[in-house]
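Recall the central idea of this unit: under ordinary conditions, the amino acid sequence of a chain determines the structure it adopts. In this exercise we apply that idea directly, starting from the sequence alone.
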Amino acid sequence: MTPGCWRGRCARLSSFASEVRRQLAAGAATSTVGRHELAGLVDASGLWDQEGVTLRTPSAAVARSVVRLWRSEFGMDSRLSAIEPDRFGRTRYAVRTAGNGAIQAAEELKFARTARAPAERAGYLRGAFQGAGSVNRPGGRGGHHLEFVHREEAFIRRCAAFSRAPLKVVRRRGRWVAYTKSADGVTTVLAQMSLSEAVLEYEARAVLGEAKANANRVTNFDAANAGRTAMAAARQQRAFETLDPQHLPPALREMLELRIENPDASLAELARLGDLSKSAANHRLRRLVALSGEPARQ
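Accordingly, the structure predicted from this sequence is:
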């Protein structure tokens, strides 16, 4: 991954999930649990036949990672080729690994699924995410969401069991899904897969998104209050036009003059101007409205 890719041009051109997969693929060359990572990849997006296995992926980085892993873990060469695009017109890639070595490796990869050590489980999840994982961009409209999706229930339950964060398992549209919708859950899984840069990016964007959401809530609340104040003031202005100050008690006459002179003032501002409590100011305004014959409103 090129320096600054998370916050620079790459982040703008690709989805956050694509950037996560790219970073995982780049780290595969130095992984100490490459066999477990390859097992997760093959389980997630590989198709076995009598001669070997074909793994399909829309990510060129993931495809190259699979080739490297077969070579480093089993000394085998794979054939990488572009295949028909997906329904969105995006290029897809196939990695074909065949021969007696591939068939023998299949048994060893089955053993890698029984990962017990934390590092081995993290390695398997790294591979599983590259083949069947997705995560929303932090601060986006979809909220916090990370998931693994696959047709096989056993694979999804294995991902959930290996995850340090609790993942809920459900069946959706004919596929099995293990997911978390909490910010802590997302960052825990990213950290487990050794994606420290992604965790920092996620946390930074999540904090910014939360701040924007809070600002919007405050703005909407203030706008609603301002609207209610303006409507109340307009009703009072219309009502008070029918009143004759000379026929009012001094306290009500003073409040009438305050309201007419300050048509846009809130109740709190009127109370301050009249050196009154909000309760007293509200009581006098209600009496004035009642004297005008207008129906009282909240």
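The longest strand covers residues 92-98.
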